[in-house]
Amino acid sequence: MKKPTRKKIVIFAIITFLLVSAAAGVATVLFTLSNLNAYKEDIVTFFNKTLNREMSYENEEFSFYFGPAFTFREIKIKEKNGKDTFATIERLTFKVAVFPLLVGKIVIKKMHLEKPAGILYRDRDGVLNISDLLEDQKTPSIEVRRIIVSHGAMTFTDHHIVPSGLTINLKDVDLSIQKPVWGRATDLKLLAAIDQKGKKGTLSVSGSIRPSVRNESLADSSIDARIIVTGLSMDQYGPYYAKYLPIRKAAGGLDIDARIKGNASRFSSEGSVAVKKLNLQYPQVFHASLTPKDVSLDYTIQRTPSEIIMEKLDLVVDDFKMSGNFAIKDIDKKDPLITAKASTSPVSLEKMGAFIPYGIISKDVADFIKTHIKGGTYQLEEGSILGRVSQIAHMGENENCNVLHVKIGVDKGILSYGKNVPVFSGIKGELEFRGRDMLLNHMSGKFGESPMTLEGRITDYCVPGPSGYPFTLTMTPGQKEVAWLLGIDAGSNFVFTGKTFLRMTGSGTTDNYKLDGHWNLTEASYNYNDVFTKPPSQNNQVAFKSGFKSGEWQIEAFSLWLASLRINAAANYRVRDKYISYFAVESNPFKIENIISNLPQMGKYQPVGSMQFALTGSGMSKSIADLDLHGNIAFSGLSFRPVETFRAISLLKGSVSIGRNSLDTSLLTGRIGNSPMHGVATLKNFSDPSVSVNVSSALLNLEDVGLQSPSGPVKLKNFTGDIVLKGNQLLINGLSIRLNHSVFNVTGDMPDVNKPFFDIRVTSPYLDMDDIILLSGVNARKRKKSTSKEELSLKASVYSDRGKINSIPYSELRTTLTYRQRTMDIPALEMNAFNGGFAGKGYIVFPTGGATQYNVDFMISKMSAEQILKHAGSERVSIKGTLTMKGDLTAEGATLSDLKKTAKGTATVLMEKGSLNKFAVLSKVFSILNVSQLLKFQLPDMMTKGMPFTSINGTLSLKDGVLSSDDLFIKSNSMNISVVGKTDIVREELDHNIGIQPFQTVDKIVSYVPVAGWILTDDKRRLMTLYFHAQGKWSDPVVTAIPFKSMSKGLQDIYKNLFRLPSRLITDTGEVIIGR
Question: How far apart are the C-alpha atoms of 874 and 867, rounded to whole Å?
Fold first, then answer.
C-alpha cells in the first residue's frame, strides 16, 4: 500500500478544518436562529416594514429536516388602516439555504404558504389596495428563490366598476413561482378554481413572467405563458365591457386557451376562445338575441408599438365558419390604419339571420333586409377593409366608402314585397359592395313562377343624400305574374300561355325615378273571362316610359299595338293621395272587324265599321266623375246587332263628345233593320249618371226592334221618344207613336230597371181598341236562351178624347189599370158612348197555359138603345129609347164563343120612353090575337110604327151561356107586357112565356069598362090578361097562346106579382080568345 505524501496530508487537514469551522459556524447560526422567540419582534418588524402593513402570528417552530426550516402559524396581516384584514395564512414555512448563512446572507430556498386567504379590492377611484406594494420595487434584503402556495383563496372586490362591489372569488389556488425578482424572468405556475356565484370555473397559467423594474410602468412587465381558462361565466363580468359596449346581456360559458409572449406594447399570442350556449343581447347592433350553441375563435396575433397584426382569425358559430385576418397599423399615431379580410362558408338566412348587424348598417339597407329578404343561402366570398379609423367612422363622407369592398354570393334567395306581390325566389347571383355602390351582379331567379334575370345597383348607398336604383330586368312572365302585372285576378277567369319577353330598365332616386319597359306579347295566347282573347302569332306589343317625381307617378308614354289597333296614352298618378290627376289616351283610326276576334263577347253583336277615339282628363279629384274630361269618339259606317231579338243597326254615323262630368252625342243617323232612325243622347254626372235619349223614326217596324205580332208586321209612324235613365230609374218624358188611326202619347217611369214595372200615363186624341188589341198581341221575339224569371208589371192611367172599342164609338174615355203577376186590375173605367155613359171596374187574369179570365162590374147610363142595336147590326129587332143597366159579369176563354159559353152574371135593366120596332116575337103574338072577337081596337103595327113604351125594366141572369129573367116588364100606354124565360146566346135560341095586359090602346071600350090604375075588368070586375109561349130560333120563333091555368104554380106566382093579380082569377082570358 502506497503511503500518502506530505502534501496530500496537508491539503486534507486544511479541508477538514474548513469543514469543521463551517459546520461550527452554521451550527452557531442555526442555534441562534432556532431561538425564534428571541427574534419574534425583529421578524414582525421586518414583515411590517416590507408589507407596510401590521403582521402577527400565533406561534412558530424550527426544524432541521433536510435543512433548516422555519414555520409560522395563524398569520394575520392587517390592511394599511390597521383595522381590516388584508390576508391570513394558516401556515407559512421558510426553508433556508445553509451556506449563504456563512457569509451572513439569508436565502430562502422555498417559501410555502398553506391555505392563505387574501383580500384584494379596488376602490371607487380605481386604486387597488396593493398599489403601494406594486410601486415599491426595492430589492428585499432576503432572497426568495421559490414561492409555493397551496390551497389558497383570494377574494377580489371591485368598487370602481360596480359601486356596491363586484366580487370574484378564487379558491383552491396552487401557485409556484421561481426566483421572484423585479426585472427578472420568473417561472410561474398557477392553478385556481373560480367561484362565480355558484358557477365553477378554472384558471391555469404556466410559463414565466418578468415584472417591470423600478421607474418602469407595470404595463412594461412581460409574460411568456400559456393561459387556460374554462367555465368563465360571461354575465359575471358584464360591467367590465358595458362601459365600452352597451350590451344588454352576454351569458354563456367562456373557455380560453392562449399562449402569450411579450409585454403590453410588444407581444405575440395564439390560441382559441370558445363560448358554450351563448346568449348575447346587443340591440344597438343585433335586433334579436344571439343564441348559438357553440362559438369558437382561433387566432394568431402580434403586437408592436406601432401595429397589431392578427394573421389568423378563424371563427366558427355552430355550422357557420369565417376565416380572415386583421391588422391595425400606426396605432401610435392619431389616425390608425385598419386592414381586414374575411370570407365565410355558405349559411342560410334562417340560421344566421339574427347575426345581421342591423344597427351598424344604413337604415334604408337594414329596413330593406328586414322587410323584404325572407330566405336564402349567403356566403361572404370576399370582404376587405382598408382605411383609416377616421374614414371608417365617417363612411358617408367624401370617398371614405371606398375603404370597404364586399362580395356576397347568393343562392336560393327569397325576396318578398308583401302578400299581394309575387315572391322573388330561387335568386342566385352576387351582391357586391364596391365604393359608393351596392351592385347586384348576374342575378337570376323567379318572379312568382316566371324566370327572370337582373343586373342592377344601389348607388351612393353609404353617403348622405338619396340613393340611385338603376337596373335592367328581363323576364318571361307566366299566367299568375301577367295577371298581377295587369292588376286582375289570376283565377280560372284568366288563361295565359306562350313565351313572351319583358324587358324593364330603371334609373334614378326614390324621389325622381325613371322606369321604362317593352313587352313583346306576339307569341302569347291569353284569355280573360271570355271578354278578351288573343290568339298566338297576332302582333301584340306594349311599350312604356314612366317616372316618379315629387310624389307623382308620371306615365310619359304608353303604347299598345294589337293587330291594326294602336293606342297611345299618358297619365299622372298621385301616389300618396291615390288618385289620377291627369291622363290622355288616343287611338289610330281602326276597323272594328279587325279586332273582333279579340272580343268574343262582341261577336254576337256582329260589329263592323270604322272608329277612332281621343280622351283627356285633368284635375285633383279622387274619382273620374270630378275630372275635367274632354274627348271625342268618332265612328262611321258602324253596324252591329245590339240584342239577339233586334235586327242589325247599320250605317250608324256620328260622334260622342266627352266633357267635364258629361257625355253628348252628335246627331246619330242610321237604320235598325229597314227602319230609319236618328237621335241624340246625353250622359251627365259620372258619379250618379243620368242618361237622356231622344230618338225618332218616320216609320218604325216593330219587328226590327224584336217585337212581332201574329197579325203580321206592325209599323209605327212618326215615332219619337224622350227617355232618361237615372240610377236604376227609367223616366219616359215623352213617347209618341201613331198606329193606323190611333195616336199614343205616353209618359211615366220604370222605378227600378232591375224589376220590370212601368208606371205610365197615356193620353190620346184618338184610340181604336183594334189598335190596342193589335199592340197587346205584340210579343218579344223569343231568345235562344233567357234567364230572366221576372214578368212585366204595369200601372197605367189612360185618357182618350175619342175612339172606338170593337167599332163602338166612344168619347172621353178615362181609366186606370194595373198589371201584375199576370193579372190586369181595372179599378175604374169611364167613357161616353151611344149618347150615354159607361162606368165599370174589374180584372182580367192571364194564367200560364190556361184561358183568360174576365170579371167586371159595370153601369150603363141612358145609352141610346137604337144606336146600340144598330151598331150591333140587328135588322130583325129595333128598339128606341134610353138604356140604363147595372150588373156584373164573369167569363173565360180565348174566343167570343168561349166567352159566351162561360159567361156568368146578373144585371138590372131599365129602358125609358122608347118603342119596340121589328120585334119578331111580339109581331107573332099580335098576329095570334083575334081582336075583333075580344075587343074592337087597333093594335100597334110592329113593322112600321112600332109599339111605344114608357119603360122596360127587369133583372137578367146569365149562366153557362143562357140568359134568363123572371121579371122583365114592359110598360106602355097601350098595354103591359111581361116576359119570363131563357135565351141561349150560344145557340141563339129562346124559350119565353109572355104575358100581355091590353090597356089604354083599347080606347073603343074605355067608356064601357071602368079603369082602376093598371087593371082592366069586366062588369063583374074580373081581370083580363093574355099569355103566350115563344120558343125556337131568335130569327123565327114559334109563338102560341096559352091559358093561365096551364102554367106552373111558380110561373103563375110570377105573373101575379108582375101584373098585381088577385090570388083567384074570375076569368081566364084564354077561354075567350082561343075557346078553351
Answer: 10
Last residue of a domain, one of 153, 180, 207: 180
Domain presence at residue 236: no
- DSSP summary character for residue 1048: -
Q: Count of domains in the chain?
A: 3
Cα separation, 172 vs 183, in Å, equals 29
3-state DSSP assignment of residue 171: strand
Q: Write down the residue that cell numbers 357553440 correspond to.
A: 294
Task: Return d(Cα 836, Cα 35) in angstroms, integer.
Answer: 170
Burial of 724 (0-12, 13-18, 19+ CB in 10 A): middle
Dihedral, 1057, 1062, 1063, 1065 alpha carbons, nearest 10: -120
User: Helix %, strand %, coil % for the chain, to 5?
Assistant: 15, 55, 30
Helix (H) or strand (E) holding 50: helix 36-51
Residue pair 496/524 in contact (Cβ under 8 Å)? The answer is yes
**118 close to 151: Cβ distance less than 8 angstroms:** no
Question: Any idea which residue has 403586437 for its cell?
Answer: 303
Place of cell 288563361: 495
Q: Which of 140, 160, 180 is the last residue of a domain?
A: 180
More confident position, 180 or 129: 129
Residue ranges of E strands in 999-1047: 1011-1012, 1015-1016, 1026-1033, 1037-1041
928 and 1062 assigned to the same domain:
yes
Phi, psi angles (nearest 5°) of residue 484: -65, -45
User: E strands of 535-661, at which residues?
Assistant: 540-549, 552-562, 565-574, 579-587, 590-591, 608-618, 628-640, 649-659
Residue-number span of the structural domain to which 34 is assigned: 11-180
Could you report the per-residue pLDDT of 25-65, keeping only the tens digit for each?
A: 555 555 555 554 544 565 667 677 777 888 888 888 877 76
For residues 364 and 389, the answer to whether their CB atoms sit within 8 Å is: no
Residue 116: CB atoms within 10 Å: 21
Tell me, rounded to whole angstroms, the distance of Cα 555 from its chain centroid.
Answer: 26
Confirm whether 755 is domain-assigned: no
Closest among 521, 527, 525, 534 to 598, alpha carbons compared? 534
| pLDDT of res. 36 | 47
Q: Between 23 and 405, whose confidence is greater?
A: 405
Q: Could you tell me the pTM of the whole model?
A: 0.58
Alpha carbons 862 and 885: distance in angstroms, whole number: 8
d(C-alpha 945, C-alpha 938), whole Å:
13
Judged against a pLDDT cut of 90, whether residue 9 lies above it is answered with no
Q: What is the mean pLDDT of the chain?
A: 81
956, part of any domain: yes
**pLDDT of 925-975, one tens digit each?**
666 654 433 444 445 555 556 778 889 899 999 998 899 988 888 888 777
Q: Are residues 31 and 171 in the same domain?
A: yes
pLDDT cut 90: percent of the chain above it: 32
Contact indicator for 616, 630 with CB cutoff of 8 Å: yes
Q: Is the pLDDT of residue 1011 over 60?
A: no
**Whether residues 169 and 316 fall in one domain:** no
Residue 479 lies in a domain: no
